[in-house]
Amino acid sequence: MSAQANRVMALSEWEDRWNEGKTGFHRPEVHNLLENNLDKVICGRKEVRFFFPLCGKAVDMKWLADMGHTVVGVEISEKGIKQFFAEQNLAFNEEPVAAIPGANVFKSADGKISIYQCDLYKFSSAVAGKFGGIWDRGALVAINPCDRQKYATLLMSLMNNDCRYLLDTVEYNSELYKGPPFVVSEEDVKNEFGGGCDIELLESVDAFGEKYKSVGLDSLTEKVYLLIIKSTNLLQK
Questions:
Q1: Residues 188-210: tens digit of each pLDDT
Q2: How many angstroms separate the CA atoms of 225 and 193, rounded?
Q3: What separation in angstroms does the CA of 231 have from each of 41, 44, 136, 195?
């Protein structure tokens, strides 16, 4: 990560990407690594509350809601949120969030999906409770590397005792590309989350393609981890 350690993007830069249609990070289909590992997250549970940090307009949210789960996302871009509801043909309501000045929450008419438009670091369990599942794709790899400890602390504070957190990361030669997405190694995951969570690498795949070749990379590996609250931490609660 050394070549990227000091890279900083302002929230306004992410909003600009949405407004300019520079959303190459969006996937129009359900993520294969979520599909492959969903059973390990659900573990036979019904109506799991899922959290999607920096959710964009991820189609995975509708996919999970259609299974009977509920989804809460956080996203800075109003345009991205409204595109999600329009593209999924979902009616929604918009209302202010009393606990976060200036923030709004967009809720599907059936109540299954709620997306908070705000700075992620202003979100907390006091706003929307804790969660039984987390799907982190394009979030940890997108935040400024200098904010990772703050991010990990927030995400762990949102985990119910039985929460199962699926974390998607990428690895490549950081000397060749400044990011985002930023490189997050297995060591990085352990450094940020290892104090509070048990971590298991579930899958590692070659995700190199033309999109990455075009920015000068020669390889890219995508990895997905499962994080669960350490049992020793549960005993202390």
A1: 999 999 999 999 999 999 999 99
A2: 11
A3: 17, 20, 22, 12
